[in-house]
Specification:
By secondary structure, this protein is an alpha+beta fold. Among the domains are: 1-31; 34-63 and 98-171. 37% of the residues lie in helices and 31% in strands. Strands 2, 3, 4, 11, 12 and 13 form a 6-stranded mixed beta sheet that branches. A 4-stranded mixed beta sheet has the order 1-9-8-5. A 3-stranded antiparallel beta sheet has the order 6-7-10. Helix 2 (43-66) crosses helix 3 (99-113). The longest helix is centred in the N-terminal third of the chain and has 30 residues, at 2-31. The protein is elongated. The termini are far apart.
Amino acid sequence: MKKRGQVSIFIIIAIVIVIIIAIILIANNKSGIFNNQNSPDIANVNTQIEQCTEQRALDAIRLIGLQGGYTNLPDNFIITNLSNIAYGYYEGEKTLPAKTTIEKEINNYIEITTPYCIDNNNFPGYNITLGKAKSTTTIEDNQITISLKLPASITKGTKTYTTEGPYDIQIPIRLGKIYSTAELIVDSEIKNPDNIELSKLSSLDYYITVVPVTDKEIIYIITDNRSQTDNIPYSFLFANKFKK
């Protein structure tokens, strides 16, 4: 009898749980709230977010290349006609940003700019509210992988959809290998600051340009013809300043 009573209690609990779940589902359907980012009703919004994410990622990566690994420059940089460029080597010290720092710079740029991707005026009949973006970037040897989560509430008529991605992007730029080359240059100069081994640079898999700025400062431009955006080879610049 005792066991049968326990079984009955478990059955009652299970029924109550099923009823609660059913009530929640019915309430959501009545209110028109759907958690389905694959719905055809919001496909154009998701496409716009994904395309915009890729463009913002490209903008960040280009800026990283022009400014020595930063989208937001540090206090110490050199002003040139090319761009404002951070130092990778400064009077004997390695100041090239770590690869993880560059990944954070890309993330910050994407997170700040992607909420501006969607303009309600471009989607008549929709009311779109975006939440806080969260980007994750991984710099690999042959590509840059970006995953963005962007919570969104999208209302069309009486239906409201909630979505957040992730929106996954792969950019075929060999930034990992380019960064390793920049590190090789800086580490070589720390070991022997009085001698730039141009022969070693010429043997690398990139076109490397050395631009004198002053008698103590130079700029390295690492150009990779195999990494292109809009048919333009990707370049990574950084400045070096030697001791007096």
